[in-house]
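Notebook, student rotation project (T.W.).
Task set for the rotation: take a protein with a known small-molecule partner, predict the structure of the complex, and write up what can be learned from the model alone. Partner molecule chosen: 2-acetamido-2-deoxy-beta-D-glucopyranose. Sequence and SMILES entered below by T.W., checked by me.
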Amino acid sequence: MDNFMKVIAIFVMFVEIQTALSQPIIPPGGPNDVIQQLCKRNRYQSLCVSTLNLDPRSKTSSNPQELASISIDATTKKVNETQEYLISVIKTIRRREDWEMYGTCIEEYGAAIRRFLPATLADLKAKNYSQAMSNMKDVVSAPGICQDQFAGKCPFALTGRNKAVHDIADMTADIIKTFFVN
Ligand SMILES: *[C@@H]1O[C@H](CO)[C@@H](O)[C@H](O)[C@H]1NC(C)=O
Ligand SMILES: *[C@@H]1O[C@H](CO)[C@@H](O)[C@H](O)[C@H]1NC(C)=O
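Predicted structure of the complex:
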């Protein structure tokens, strides 16, 4: 190889390296890095990461919007569990006042399951983020309305469940919020 050929070979190699470097960079840890990124500024950061990692779909998803749907599904699951708990409790209640308090909780959570959570999913799909946020806020407020029925005397077990629903719903709202900023 004469010197001219050597220069050409080095030049070609240089161009190849440049091309390789300019390729879109795949996150080294795969989709998990997208989760870290999405949860970075969430007020419930560790809940955000654990909720998204728990769903097997997140292993193959690097799309923030899909991850938001996963978070909405996880919220629905938590609301459903609480609803089932409330229904099991109300069956054992005899005092009318208690029946009304639990009944209001069941109505609130029922509206979240039937109306607001499916609407949030649909809004997200339609990329109507402000509407998604508005529906999600109605889910976030449900546990507080339930809690307030008991005027500071909410049973411990229900208080814990209301807080769990509130936090996962508020965390999901925080994820949806990131779609406005970007
Ligand atoms: C929640 O409950 C509804 C009605 O019982 C059901 O259709 C839905 O699949 C449940 N969702 C989850 C995530 O468990
Ligand atoms: C979002 O949904 C609301 C309510 O359905 C509607 O009024 C609004 O026009 C929609 N916005 C966009 C950007 O589609």
